[in-house]
């Protein structure tokens, strides 16, 4: 595999640098927002009100989707988002199943909000990178 040839065939669209935030009591209080239509990347703070009412994972995902969409937003509307988040124990090694994260969006099949619990390393790596959620629009 020729890495240089692969690099030459691809174009860097956007670059983002950030200052790492440590996990404190299960939270980083940061959201990474990426708009794939406008190439906007920014860091958002988790509102204190959201942190007090929702534990993380599904709660954060549902709240972020609620804020981004309207009641009649169809799945293929540009305002629909895909939100990936993990809870406060995401990635710790003391308990099994903490490698999970939640994906929340509007389903193309039903037109309603759906969430999916997924395993793997993405959720913990997102948390350890300094973010409680990834918001893709």
Question: Which structural traits does this protein have?
Answer:
137 residues, alpha+beta, Aldehyde Ferredoxin Oxidoreductase,  A, domain 1, 4 helices, 6 strands, 23% strand
Set down the secondary structure blueprint.
Blueprint: H1 3-9, E1 30-35, E2 40-45, H2 48-53, H3 58-68, E3 82-85, E4 101-106, E5 113-118, H4 122-128, E6 133-136
Describe this structure in words.
With 137 residues, the protein is of the alpha+beta class. It is 23% helix and 23% strand. The longest helix has 11 residues, at 58-68. It has helices spanning 3-9, 48-53, 58-68, 122-128; strands at residues 30-35, 40-45, 82-85, 101-106, 113-118, 133-136. The chain has one domain (25-136): Aldehyde ferredoxin oxidoreductase, N-terminal domain (Aldehyde Ferredoxin Oxidoreductase,  A, domain 1, 4-Layer Sandwich). A six-stranded mixed beta sheet has the order 2-1-6-3-4-5. It has four helices and six strands. The protein is globular and about 50 Å long.
CATH overall fold name: Aldehyde Ferredoxin Oxidoreductase,  A, domain 1
Structural class: alpha+beta
Helix % is 10-25%
Cα distance spanning the termini: 33 Å
User: What's the β-strand tally?
Assistant: 6
Please tell me the total number of domains. 1
Mean pLDDT rating: 91
| CATH architect. name | 4-Layer Sandwich
Q: Which word captures the global form? A: globular
Uncertain ranges: none
Q: Mind telling me the C-alpha Rg? A: 16 Å
* CATH class placement: Alpha Beta
Count helical runs. 4
Strand order of the largest sheet: 2-1-6-3-4-5
**Strand-residue fraction?**
15-25%
**Element order, helices and strands?**
HEEHHEEEHE
Major sheet size, sense and barrel closure: 6 strands, mixed
Annotated CATH homologous superfamily: Aldehyde ferredoxin oxidoreductase, N-terminal domain
């Amino acid at each position: 595999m020729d890495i240089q040839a692969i690099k030459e065939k691809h174009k860097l669209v956007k670059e983002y640098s950030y200052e790492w935030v440590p996990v404190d009591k299960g939270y980083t209080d940061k959201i990474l927002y990426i708009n794939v239509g406008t190439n906007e990347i920014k860091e958002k703070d988790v509102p204190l009100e959201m942190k007090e009412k929702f534990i993380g994972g599904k709660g954060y995902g549902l709240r972020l989707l609620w804020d981004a969409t309207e009641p009649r937003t169809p799945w293929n509307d540009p305002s629909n988002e895909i939100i990936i988040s993990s809870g406060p124990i995401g990635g710790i090694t003391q308990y099994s199943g903490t490698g999970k994260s939640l994906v929340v969006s509007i389903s193309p099949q039903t037109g309603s909000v759906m969430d999916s619990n997924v395993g793997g390393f993405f959720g913990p790596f997102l948390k350890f990178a300094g973010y409680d959620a990834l918001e893709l629009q």
